[in-house]
Fold this sequence. Notes:
- By secondary structure, the protein is mainly alpha-helical.
- The protein contains 16 helices and three strands.
- The protein has helices spanning 19-34, 39-52, 93-107, 113-125, 132-149, 154-176, 181-201, 205-217, 222-233, 237-267, 286-302, 310-329, 334-355, 361-367, 374-385, 389-418, and strands at residues 59-62, 66-71, 80-85.
- A hairpin with an 8-residue loop joins strand 2 and strand 3.
- Helix 7 runs parallel beside helix 10 and helix 15 runs antiparallel to helix 16.
- It is elongated and about 80 Å long.
- The protein starts with 18 loop residues before the first helix and ends in a 24-residue tail after the last helix.
Amino acid sequence: MDGAPPEPPEEEPGEIVDPRALDLVLRVGELLLASGETTERVNEAMLSLAVAYEIPRCEVQVTLTSLLVSAHPGKGAAPVTGSRAIRRRTPAYWRLTALHQLVQDASIGMLELDEAHKKLAEIKQGRAPYPAWLMVVSLGLIAASGSVLAGGGPLVATTAFIATLLGDRTAAALARRGIAEFFQLTLAAAIGAAAAALVVAMGNPGHAATVVTGAILALLPGRPLVASIQDGITGDLISAGARLLEVFFLIAAIVAGLGVVVYAAVNLDVPIDVKHLPTPAAELRPVAIMAAAVISLTFAISLAAPRAVLTAAALGGALIWVLYVLARVWHVPPVLAAAVAATVVGTLANWLARRHRQPVMPYVVPAIGPLLPGTALYRGMVELNTGSPNAGVLSLIGAISVALALGAGVNLGGEFIRAFQRVGLGASGRWARPAAHRTRGF
């Protein structure tokens, strides 16, 4: 009835964007991604910090090499955007654990912004829980244990240990000269294969494959493999594609190093033969179970995992080997056996990580170490260079299939645990997960 025009609605009040809060979100995300965390977890942690420190209408974009955070203050004000590039990614699982604790404390209001910045600086400047020499020696111990797992004895384990240390130190010298990582891995794999060829030339062909199996095991990219499968499952396809391409190039570098040495050895009449390659163990031996546990233990040390995780890593390695061997005894194909064993171990590892409120990567990545396909890669290169190209290609495909089955298995275990959880890292429920949204038909 009133002819007066209605009053215009009041404009939404503007919100202040604290630049120090935005900087904290970016720096935590950068350090998480550089330390080896998956894209989904980094995204969840950054959004949790944005909510905790009241960054208005925050949007986060995470890829393998860059981070972008944008806040919209409202009241017609321009958005505030910050970004950071990830130039170096060094796995440091102790730092990963400390950062997750920082995010959890901030999410429940236990850390003021200044305290969070101070704690982040302490984490960034902190040191690994192990001396540098032990982390280098752990690579040699992975190779030695892998040789024992493949059927070798003390002499073979010692040879694999020395070859791996020599390859690692040579690769480190190349890194200081600015040589790309692809060629570092190629040379490291070539040194391990050269040690095997030398063993064959000395009249011990049965021990050669166990030497190179251990040397390759220390080089295989278990960490990016698990992260790539996780990113693909959760819908972060750009990061998943980039990580999977990284895995491909790392494996290609190892295969190239093996191929060059095997080809040269065959042409020099070194009697390398597929008949001398070890076959997967069909029985449970205490020595093999112990070797699998040591592989995972030393794998965790090489990734600078926290000391509290070492026991769980060793038990996970022993368990995944026992499950795999039992499945093979029941005539389950290798790929399916690896997937089943990885799923069981992944479920237990995710449950344990959530129980202790810690990231899951330090638990699952070392545990899959005993099943990484070092022998299959070596078999494929020997077959390719000894007149059996079709069999060689099939062996390489089988090796890659086992590796992918391991990554998918441990992530499937995480999905089982997530189906029964109540909240995520930063109190984000199951429905808030982008990977849970139905997109079929759109």
